[in-house]
Amino acid sequence: MAIAQNRALRFLYQTWWAWWVPRFGMAAFIVFLLVERLQSPAVLMGVFLVLSFVGEVFGRRGLAKARARVRMKGTTTTVSINEEGIDVAGAHGNSHTKWSAMLAPAVYPNGVVLKFNRMATLWLPDSALTGGTPDDVRQLLKENIQAPAANGG
């Protein structure tokens, strides 16, 4: 959620050409330096250009390894919603959250995002419901979670 809310990060990470425009500029600058017979700065810029590719490869590899190490991977989490609050039960623990501690949810046509705080969220797809209907879930959320006031309070 943090990247989706930050326009600059969203631009950099979700726009493929945002990384290539500076590389083309750097390559053009290297050609200019070579034409002007400035080999040392051209080599330095070439090293930086190569490092930009190496950094991207190792960054993606590190992210893939981090996703593989998530301790919740392969486990099932059960979410129960009732008039008292939200119960979450998983392989690594259980929790109960009262409605008063919840932020306003984000409701989508195919599910609901429950917000525990700005960074901690839980996606509940309608297709995963084992009891009740999507309308029941939305009604329960509407009745129990207070939307923030228009003045930001």
Condensed summary:
This protein has 153 residues and is α+β, with helices and mostly antiparallel strands. It has five helices and six strands.
Commentary on this structure:
- The chain is α+β, with helices and mostly antiparallel strands and 153 residues long.
- It has two domains: 2-68; 78-144.
- 45% of the residues lie in helices and 22% in strands.
- The protein contains five helices and six strands.
- The strands form two sheets. The chain has a three-stranded antiparallel sheet with strand order 1-2-3, with helices on one face. A three-stranded antiparallel sheet has the order 4-5-6, covered by helices on one side.
- Strand 4 (103-108) and strand 5 form a beta hairpin.
- The longest helix has 30 residues, at 39-68.
- The protein is elongated.
Structural class: alpha+beta
The tally of structural domains comes to: 2
The helicity comes to: 40-55%
Element-by-element helix/strand order: HHHHEEEEEEH
